[in-house]
Amino acid sequence: MHLVPADRAGRRTIDGHRVCDAIEAIGDAGHVRAWADRFSLLADPGRLALLLALDRTGPLAVSDLAVATGMNDPAVSQALRLLRAAGVVEGRKDGRVVRYRIVDARVRGLLGHCAADAG
Amino acid sequence: MHLVPADRAGRRTIDGHRVCDAIEAIGDAGHVRAWADRFSLLADPGRLALLLALDRTGPLAVSDLAVATGMNDPAVSQALRLLRAAGVVEGRKDGRVVRYRIVDARVRGLLGHCAADAG
DNA sequence: TCCATACCTGCGCAGATGTGCAGCTATGCA
DNA sequence: TGCATAGCTGCACATCTGCGCAGGTATGGA
Asked: How is residue A72 annotated by DSSP?
Protein backbone atom coordinates (compact mmCIF):
# COMPACT_ATOMS: atom_id res chain seq x y z
CA MET A 1 0.00 0.00 0.00
CA HIS A 2 1.39 3.34 -1.00
CA LEU A 3 -0.58 5.52 1.33
CA VAL A 4 2.18 8.05 1.89
CA PRO A 5 1.55 11.11 -0.29
CA ALA A 6 4.19 11.89 -2.86
CA ASP A 7 5.39 15.04 -1.13
CA ARG A 8 6.41 13.05 1.95
CA ALA A 9 7.45 9.80 0.32
CA GLY A 10 11.11 10.76 0.46
CA ARG A 11 11.29 11.13 4.23
CA ARG A 12 12.89 8.55 6.46
CA THR A 13 10.62 6.44 8.61
CA ILE A 14 11.24 4.30 11.70
CA ASP A 15 8.44 1.75 11.32
CA GLY A 16 7.42 2.14 7.70
CA HIS A 17 4.42 -0.19 7.74
CA ARG A 18 2.99 1.52 10.81
CA VAL A 19 3.07 4.85 9.01
CA CYS A 20 0.62 3.46 6.46
CA ASP A 21 -1.60 2.13 9.25
CA ALA A 22 -1.50 5.54 10.88
CA ILE A 23 -2.45 7.33 7.67
CA GLU A 24 -5.33 4.95 7.24
CA ALA A 25 -6.40 5.54 10.85
CA ILE A 26 -6.35 9.31 10.42
CA GLY A 27 -8.56 9.13 7.34
CA ASP A 28 -9.75 12.04 5.27
CA ALA A 29 -8.38 15.46 6.20
CA GLY A 30 -11.82 17.03 5.91
CA HIS A 31 -13.20 14.48 8.32
CA VAL A 32 -10.49 15.30 10.85
CA ARG A 33 -11.09 19.01 10.49
CA ALA A 34 -14.84 18.57 10.94
CA TRP A 35 -14.31 16.73 14.20
CA ALA A 36 -11.71 19.23 15.37
CA ASP A 37 -14.26 21.99 14.76
CA ARG A 38 -16.85 20.02 16.69
CA PHE A 39 -14.49 19.63 19.63
CA SER A 40 -13.65 23.29 19.38
CA LEU A 41 -17.28 24.18 20.03
CA LEU A 42 -17.16 22.19 23.28
CA ALA A 43 -13.77 23.58 24.30
CA ASP A 44 -15.19 26.71 25.94
CA PRO A 45 -16.49 26.39 29.53
CA GLY A 46 -19.39 28.74 28.79
CA ARG A 47 -20.58 26.89 25.69
CA LEU A 48 -20.06 23.53 27.34
CA ALA A 49 -22.17 24.59 30.34
CA LEU A 50 -24.92 25.77 28.00
CA LEU A 51 -24.91 22.50 26.10
CA LEU A 52 -24.90 20.38 29.26
CA ALA A 53 -27.90 22.31 30.52
CA LEU A 54 -29.74 21.97 27.21
CA ASP A 55 -28.88 18.29 26.90
CA ARG A 56 -30.43 17.27 30.18
CA THR A 57 -33.07 19.92 30.75
CA GLY A 58 -34.53 20.36 27.30
CA PRO A 59 -35.66 23.61 25.63
CA LEU A 60 -34.47 26.64 27.61
CA ALA A 61 -34.83 30.39 27.15
CA VAL A 62 -31.80 32.64 26.75
CA SER A 63 -32.40 34.48 30.03
CA ASP A 64 -32.72 31.24 31.95
CA LEU A 65 -29.50 29.96 30.42
CA ALA A 66 -27.80 33.18 31.47
CA VAL A 67 -28.97 32.75 35.08
CA ALA A 68 -28.08 29.06 35.17
CA THR A 69 -24.56 29.58 33.84
CA GLY A 70 -23.78 32.94 35.45
CA MET A 71 -23.05 34.52 32.07
CA ASN A 72 -24.59 37.78 30.93
CA ASP A 73 -27.10 37.90 28.12
CA PRO A 74 -24.84 38.99 25.27
CA ALA A 75 -22.34 36.27 26.06
CA VAL A 76 -25.06 33.62 25.96
CA SER A 77 -26.47 35.07 22.77
CA GLN A 78 -23.06 35.09 21.16
CA ALA A 79 -22.39 31.50 22.17
CA LEU A 80 -25.76 30.35 20.90
CA ARG A 81 -25.20 32.12 17.60
CA LEU A 82 -21.99 30.15 17.09
CA LEU A 83 -23.68 26.88 18.03
CA ARG A 84 -26.63 27.66 15.79
CA ALA A 85 -24.39 28.50 12.85
CA ALA A 86 -22.67 25.15 13.33
CA GLY A 87 -26.00 23.34 13.35
CA VAL A 88 -25.62 22.16 16.92
CA VAL A 89 -28.60 23.95 18.45
CA GLU A 90 -31.87 25.32 17.14
CA GLY A 91 -34.04 28.14 18.49
CA ARG A 92 -37.84 28.23 18.48
CA LYS A 93 -39.51 31.55 18.93
CA ASP A 94 -42.52 31.61 21.27
CA GLY A 95 -43.78 35.16 21.67
CA ARG A 96 -40.77 37.18 22.66
CA VAL A 97 -39.05 34.17 24.19
CA VAL A 98 -36.68 31.97 22.20
CA ARG A 99 -36.14 28.47 23.52
CA TYR A 100 -33.09 26.53 22.35
CA ARG A 101 -32.50 22.81 22.08
CA ILE A 102 -29.75 20.52 20.80
CA VAL A 103 -30.27 19.04 17.37
CA ASP A 104 -26.86 17.45 16.68
CA ALA A 105 -26.73 13.79 17.65
CA ARG A 106 -22.94 13.56 17.55
CA VAL A 107 -22.52 16.46 19.96
CA ARG A 108 -25.12 14.90 22.21
CA GLY A 109 -23.06 11.72 22.20
CA LEU A 110 -19.99 13.62 23.30
CA LEU A 111 -21.93 15.37 26.06
CA GLY A 112 -22.98 11.96 27.31
CA HIS A 113 -19.33 11.25 28.11
CA CYS A 114 -19.15 14.33 30.36
CA ALA A 115 -22.41 13.59 32.12
CA ALA A 116 -21.48 9.95 32.69
CA ASP A 117 -18.22 11.06 34.30
CA ALA A 118 -19.98 13.50 36.65
CA GLY A 119 -20.40 11.07 39.56
CA MET B 1 -34.35 23.58 45.89
CA HIS B 2 -32.51 26.88 45.93
CA LEU B 3 -29.77 26.04 43.52
CA VAL B 4 -29.46 29.54 42.12
CA PRO B 5 -26.42 31.26 43.67
CA ALA B 6 -27.14 34.36 45.71
CA ASP B 7 -25.54 36.74 43.22
CA ARG B 8 -28.03 35.73 40.53
CA ALA B 9 -31.09 35.06 42.69
CA GLY B 10 -32.54 38.49 41.93
CA ARG B 11 -32.68 38.02 38.14
CA ARG B 12 -35.94 37.33 36.34
CA THR B 13 -36.47 33.84 34.94
CA ILE B 14 -38.86 32.45 32.35
CA ASP B 15 -39.18 28.86 33.58
CA GLY B 16 -37.90 29.07 37.16
CA HIS B 17 -37.93 25.36 37.91
CA ARG B 18 -36.03 24.53 34.74
CA VAL B 19 -33.24 26.86 35.79
CA CYS B 20 -32.63 24.70 38.84
CA ASP B 21 -32.63 21.57 36.69
CA ALA B 22 -30.14 23.23 34.38
CA ILE B 23 -27.82 24.19 37.23
CA GLU B 24 -27.92 20.62 38.47
CA ALA B 25 -27.20 19.34 34.97
CA ILE B 26 -24.18 21.61 34.60
CA GLY B 27 -22.68 20.42 37.86
CA ASP B 28 -19.43 21.58 39.37
CA ALA B 29 -17.61 24.41 37.60
CA GLY B 30 -14.28 22.63 37.94
CA HIS B 31 -15.71 19.56 36.29
CA VAL B 32 -16.96 21.63 33.35
CA ARG B 33 -13.61 23.35 32.99
CA ALA B 34 -11.78 20.02 33.07
CA TRP B 35 -13.88 18.69 30.22
CA ALA B 36 -13.57 21.93 28.27
CA ASP B 37 -9.79 21.61 28.56
CA ARG B 38 -10.01 18.03 27.37
CA PHE B 39 -12.06 19.05 24.34
CA SER B 40 -9.61 21.87 23.72
CA LEU B 41 -6.82 19.34 23.28
CA LEU B 42 -8.82 17.62 20.53
CA ALA B 43 -9.85 20.89 18.89
CA ASP B 44 -6.71 21.18 16.77
CA PRO B 45 -6.57 19.20 13.50
CA GLY B 46 -2.91 18.40 14.04
CA ARG B 47 -3.30 17.06 17.55
CA LEU B 48 -6.47 15.20 16.61
CA ALA B 49 -4.71 13.51 13.71
CA LEU B 50 -1.87 12.48 15.99
CA LEU B 51 -4.26 11.03 18.54
CA LEU B 52 -6.31 9.18 15.93
CA ALA B 53 -3.12 7.63 14.60
CA LEU B 54 -1.91 6.66 18.07
CA ASP B 55 -5.31 5.32 19.07
CA ARG B 56 -5.58 2.81 16.27
CA THR B 57 -1.96 2.10 15.40
CA GLY B 58 -0.34 1.93 18.82
CA PRO B 59 3.12 3.22 19.84
CA LEU B 60 4.57 5.46 17.13
CA ALA B 61 7.81 7.41 16.80
CA VAL B 62 7.83 11.17 16.38
CA SER B 63 9.27 11.06 12.87
CA ASP B 64 6.66 8.57 11.75
CA LEU B 65 3.90 10.73 13.18
CA ALA B 66 5.34 13.69 11.29
CA VAL B 67 5.27 11.76 8.01
CA ALA B 68 1.81 10.35 8.63
CA THR B 69 0.27 13.71 9.47
CA GLY B 70 2.27 15.90 7.10
CA MET B 71 3.49 18.09 9.94
CA ASN B 72 7.13 19.00 10.50
CA ASP B 73 9.07 17.66 13.47
CA PRO B 74 8.91 20.69 15.78
CA ALA B 75 5.15 20.93 15.35
CA VAL B 76 4.69 17.28 16.27
CA SER B 77 7.05 17.66 19.20
CA GLN B 78 5.18 20.71 20.44
CA ALA B 79 1.82 19.01 20.15
CA LEU B 80 3.07 15.94 21.97
CA ARG B 81 4.52 18.08 24.72
CA LEU B 82 1.08 19.61 25.33
CA LEU B 83 -0.61 16.22 25.29
CA ARG B 84 2.02 14.78 27.60
CA ALA B 85 1.68 17.66 30.06
CA ALA B 86 -2.07 17.03 30.10
CA GLY B 87 -1.50 13.36 30.83
CA VAL B 88 -3.06 12.22 27.58
CA VAL B 89 -0.02 10.55 26.01
CA GLU B 90 3.15 9.01 27.32
CA GLY B 91 6.53 8.59 25.62
CA ARG B 92 8.87 5.64 25.98
CA LYS B 93 12.47 6.06 24.98
CA ASP B 94 14.02 3.24 22.99
CA GLY B 95 17.54 4.11 21.94
CA ARG B 96 17.23 7.47 20.22
CA VAL B 97 13.65 6.82 19.23
CA VAL B 98 10.74 7.88 21.43
CA ARG B 99 7.48 6.05 20.87
CA TYR B 100 4.26 7.61 22.12
CA ARG B 101 0.99 6.03 23.14
CA ILE B 102 -2.33 7.19 24.60
CA VAL B 103 -2.81 6.65 28.31
CA ASP B 104 -6.02 8.62 28.97
CA ALA B 105 -9.13 6.43 28.82
CA ARG B 106 -11.58 9.34 28.56
CA VAL B 107 -9.79 10.81 25.56
CA ARG B 108 -9.73 7.38 24.01
CA GLY B 109 -13.47 7.21 24.48
CA LEU B 110 -13.92 10.50 22.66
CA LEU B 111 -11.68 9.34 19.82
CA GLY B 112 -13.90 6.33 19.45
CA HIS B 113 -16.73 8.64 18.45
CA CYS B 114 -14.66 10.05 15.58
CA ALA B 115 -13.49 6.69 14.36
CA ALA B 116 -17.00 5.23 14.49
CA ASP B 117 -18.23 8.09 12.36
CA ALA B 118 -15.56 7.59 9.73
CA GLY B 119 -17.51 5.18 7.56
C1' DT C 1 -49.49 55.48 22.47
C1' DC C 2 -45.87 54.45 25.72
C1' DC C 3 -42.96 51.42 28.20
C1' DA C 4 -40.73 47.25 29.88
C1' DT C 5 -38.87 43.00 28.53
C1' DA C 6 -36.31 39.34 25.68
C1' DC C 7 -33.07 38.92 22.56
C1' DC C 8 -29.64 40.26 19.14
C1' DT C 9 -25.58 42.85 17.09
C1' DG C 10 -21.17 45.68 16.42
C1' DC C 11 -17.04 47.39 18.17
C1' DG C 12 -12.70 47.30 20.66
C1' DC C 13 -9.48 45.05 23.76
C1' DA C 14 -6.79 41.72 26.19
C1' DG C 15 -5.31 37.07 26.33
C1' DA C 16 -4.37 32.72 24.45
C1' DT C 17 -2.77 29.81 20.66
C1' DG C 18 -0.79 27.71 16.49
C1' DT C 19 3.44 28.23 13.32
C1' DG C 20 8.01 28.57 11.34
C1' DC C 21 12.77 29.14 11.96
C1' DA C 22 17.15 28.43 14.00
C1' DG C 23 19.74 26.02 17.11
C1' DC C 24 20.64 22.54 20.88
C1' DT C 25 21.30 17.76 23.09
C1' DA C 26 21.76 12.87 22.87
C1' DT C 27 22.14 8.47 20.80
C1' DG C 28 24.17 5.02 17.56
C1' DC C 29 27.34 3.59 14.06
C1' DA C 30 31.65 3.49 11.38
C1' DT D 1 36.78 9.96 17.49
C1' DG D 2 33.72 11.94 14.09
C1' DC D 3 29.31 12.27 11.94
C1' DA D 4 24.45 11.72 10.89
C1' DT D 5 19.98 11.16 12.85
C1' DA D 6 15.94 11.62 16.43
C1' DG D 7 14.04 14.58 19.15
C1' DC D 8 13.52 18.83 21.96
C1' DT D 9 13.44 23.88 22.94
C1' DG D 10 13.18 29.19 22.54
C1' DC D 11 11.84 33.11 20.17
C1' DA D 12 9.04 36.09 17.30
C1' DC D 13 5.20 36.48 14.44
C1' DA D 14 0.45 36.62 12.94
C1' DT D 15 -3.97 35.00 14.13
C1' DC D 16 -7.85 33.91 16.56
C1' DT D 17 -11.18 34.02 20.24
C1' DG D 18 -13.73 35.11 24.28
C1' DC D 19 -15.55 39.22 26.82
C1' DG D 20 -17.74 43.50 28.11
C1' DC D 21 -20.04 47.56 26.87
C1' DA D 22 -23.29 50.24 24.38
C1' DG D 23 -27.01 50.30 21.47
C1' DG D 24 -30.63 48.33 18.34
C1' DT D 25 -35.06 45.50 17.18
C1' DA D 26 -39.32 43.16 18.31
C1' DT D 27 -42.95 41.54 21.21
C1' DG D 28 -46.56 42.16 24.80
C1' DG D 29 -49.11 44.75 28.13
C1' DA D 30 -51.00 49.17 30.27
From this structure: -
Contacts (Cβ under 8 Å, ≥6 apart) of A110: A38, A39, A42, B39, B110, B113
**Tens-place pLDDT, residues B37-87:** 999 999 999 999 999 999 999 899 999 999 999 999 999 999 999 999 999
Q: Could you tell me the pTM of the whole model? A: 0.93
Q: What is the pLDDT of residue A75?
A: 97
**CA of residue A105 relative to chain centroid, distance:** 11
A-interface mutation test, from B4, B20, B26, B73, most A Cβ less than 10 A away: B26
Task: Please report the domains of chain B, with CATH numbers, ordered by start residue.
Answer: 6-35 (no CATH), 44-116 (1.10.10.10)
- Record: contact B26-A13, CB cut-off 8 A: no
Residues in chain B: 119
Distance CA A32, CA B54 (A): 14
Chain A residues in contact with B91 by the CB 8 A cut-off are none
Q: Do B22 and A60 touch (CB under 8 A)?
A: yes
